[in-house]
Amino acid sequence: MAKAFINNIEVEFEKGRTILDVAQQVQVKIPTLCKHKDLCATGACGICVVKVEGSNRMLRACCTAMDEGMKIKTHDPELIEIRRTVIELILSNHPNDCLTCGRNNDCELQTIMADFGIREELFNKIVKEIPKDSTTRTIELEPSKCIGCGRCIEVCQNVQNVWALSFLERGINTRMAPAGDIQLGDSPCVRCGQCSAHCPTGAIFEFDQTRNVWKLLQDPDIHCVVQIAPSVRVAIGEGFGYPVGTNLTKKIYAALRRLGFNTVFDTNFSADVTIMEEASEFVERFVNKKGALPLITTCCPAWVDFMEKYHADMIEHFSSAKSPQEIMSTLCKTYFAEKKKIDPAKMKVISIMPCTAKKYEISRSSEMSASGYQGTDYVLTTREIIRMIKQAGIDFNSIPDEESDHMMGDYSGAGTIFGATGGVMEAALRTAYNFVTKENLPKVEFENVRGLKGVKETAIMINGIEIKIAVAHGLGNVEYVLNKIKKAKEKGEPLPYHFVEVMACPGGCIGGGGQPYGVTDEVRMIRAKGLYQDDEASSVRCSHDNPFVKELYKDFLGAPLSEKAHHLLHTKYVPRPEYKK
Amino acid sequence: MWKYKKVILVKDTDTGKETVRFSELFNSALRDRGLDGEVQVIRSADINVYNQGIVVKIIPGNITYSKVEEKDIDLIVRKSIKKEEALKEIQIDPKDKQVRIVLRNCGIIDPENINDYISVDGYKGLKKVLEQNDRDKVIAEIKISGLRGRGGGGFPTWMKWSFAKDQKNDTKFIICNADEGDPGAYMDRSVLEGDPHSVLEGMIIAGFAVGAKKGYFYIRAEYPLAIARVELAIKQAREKGLLGNNILGTQFSFDLEVRLGAGAFVCGEETALIASIEGKRGCPSPRPPYPSISGLWGKPTVINNVETLANISPIMHKGGEWFAEIGTERSKGTKVFALTGKVENSSLIEVPMGITLKEIIYEIGGGVLNNKKIKAVQTGGPSGGVIPEEYFDTSIDYESLQNLGSIMGSGGMIVMDEDDCMVDIAKFYLKFCVDESCGKCAPCRIGGKQMLELLTEISEGKATFEQVDKLKLISKAMQKASLCGLGQTAPNPVLSTLKYFEQEYVDHIKDKKCVSGKCEALFIYEIIQDKCKRCSLCQRNCPVEAIPGDRDKGYAIDQKKCIKCGKCFEVCKFEAVNR
Question: Which residues pair with A167 in a beta bridge?
Fold first, then answer.
């Protein structure tokens, strides 16, 4: 520990921490527009400048390491004046679209301008009109609103390793855009939406489909089914003033019914079905030696897209089981439609997801329409459903709890932890263990696959055989795992892993690109905790013990990996070009 | 080794046109006397004598003759070459205030021949360093010399080296920053083209001192000759065992590679230069960490400017104390300047630190062009500022120039006279920085552009004093909150012109006048009736019919219609149109 002074207050700090971080120890939140806790500092905005005694330079608090004995001043009239001028300059380069902007009332630039009491525009407007790019149909780029903070590029290149976004041109013409100045839809973008979750303004925004959904809800001839993803329940509350991580499953069911959805299902149920298929697939490959090992999970559409673009040589390792969203939608238009005698042509399935890539998944291949109809009709992100609830005037905070529609609404604890990194692996192991040993695990929790470490490697014993496992989250962490596998394959060495879980977003779906803003590792941990508590509170902890899942197989599918299950619940993967020509 | 014992430098200092002919005449005179194997004739680029006809300098001895005529040639060869006597009638003793350390070999040796360089004490510094085999001694010697970075910052070179030396890392790098980009500057280019080995030697010594095995020459692609000569020099040095494994038979190995800059001025900034070599967008990164600690690919990296590196060999060879005797208390050695603008003798000069601007302009530069009234000198390129005449007695060193609101910079020095408008000058330099801003940080990206718009309003007579206040406000924000030197110093030309020539701003704003006649939007075209011959040429050429009248009544310009295109001014044969 070293010592220094901030505004004459002595602080002890760990060496290597920045002035911005250390200042928080003495209750100073130095304003900034470019620094995000998740990301390396770029030093782009120039607002976080502070003074250090003995130097007439001002230092950027976000990227300057605190030094032993430093005497820092974080505010004085001169610093405030300089920050104000910089903010006024940024304002002069930003359109005045606040009232019609998606980030109205939830915008970091707006907030900082309000804090600085900017009441007039000091400088002439220099705003270049650059057309919107909606070509991915999942994320929209609006470069004229970009303040050049570089967060989206930092997250796209250095966290996600996708390299779809970059800066183009120079000086005042500098703009964020897909590398090579192409359309985002033609770029390597995997639609994870992390750029939109990190953007401080409305320059990158989810492709809003709330109006399409309102239209469906208005149509009396259409039966609207809705499903909610595991991680939505512990994040939605942030939009209504709840503490982070509060589990609001039953309030969501109630609110969705009041919005006009006819049937409310839970994606946690179909997560249980995914486990039935995926665990069976694993046992098939591991015990019966049918198919390539390691088996790699495929619940995450951004990861699937990434792999098809960058690692198509790994396709044989991919689980062919569809994601929980697609399993639910397919079963709605087959199993549910049959049972309830609803014409699937007049049924629409809307899913509430933490994710922008899910908007892409619904039409990614022909298997998504295995029911004869496109399984999912619309995907709304958590941010979109929060807006819809508010539009309807539903008092979410005081709405009484309701239950889901049971047929595909009840879930096991294994289904709910899908939303956190390691959750799919943990759920699959619980069931795979049972499939091999015909017994349930004495202790179902696998602490080794939980938490935010980029790559988690561990092993478990089933029937005296060691199963080696890796869990990676954040696409930037995938390379390490895949390289290890590829190297072992090349050299003919023993496999480093038998089972691998990958989720594109850091932290898994709880940190998804469609979740409420302001995600940091701290927030991720608390949201994940909410899911693990939901698991602990469940009477059924394993997917194969879910009575409604058993009923599904008994009445409709037969057995996991049956022909019918294969036809409806599995998919294929193809190599895709990084850049569309 | 050097083939020739003596050298004759020849230069036509009037027009330059006769240099070749006189060189040939010397050559044939030498052949006649059988001296052509001993004496080399070089067509010199600059002998530092101006407007003195054909000037001839004989090395060694430094006998200089001016106004040499054809009849003198044979005499010079007979007396000065054979007997080393001087011809008093045409000999001059040029009071050369210059001291040549960096440019010591430029124009004298053949830059494409390593043996030429070796014959003038080349690689002796390196040899000494390797014989001593003590890194600390090298750095101590540089410390004694007091050498500071010549790229503009003036950071003590020994400190940079020492930081990198102290880093425990197997991989370290030396980078030569040859991304010279200031308008009108060509110091580095001249050294690389005229004496590439001196820079090479400096880099090898730097590599030894900090423990680097690899170096990069970052040269701007617009310098093809410099690139070719550096590449040739690298090849020759490798052949001689001065580069590569086990240099001169020692344990020390070091090699060099050339990387080309792609035309962005900001890539002269250390961290942007590193990003560029790494193949990334050439944008600066926050410092610290400084490159000496974490630079190229995260490894300790020393980045020195061409001129800095050219000083290393003589310092190691002749000793730090010798170097420290030249210059002032805190600024040692010499500085190369590209003296240009409204000065009689535009040239590349190398002067000892501590010399005054007056000495440079009047004694070396020969005074102002066309006997106009001098207004100021601009130093430091787009990051620098203007210095008005009353400060011409200031000594040239890092601190003094900074105190005047300018900087040493990399060595641009532009003389300005009464015809130069200070608002226009500020606009010119600012525009350069606005165009060259990488766009990464908000203060520079937006601030620069806003300042340029404000200056444009002033130069067009559309401004009030509020614009000046805004200029000052943005300047301060840019100086303090920009990420790199480009943005931090971009307001300097504006601030220094405001400081010393505020009246010119007032003229533009209040009186809507540009006394220097530069700001076109403020011109008022008028016909001087006394001079007008009523030829009607102006009327016929005016594109907007703003000149009513006829041959009887005469002509006058309708100011409301006039678009200030200047056509009438151009076509009038009697200078009867005033602006």
Answer: A176
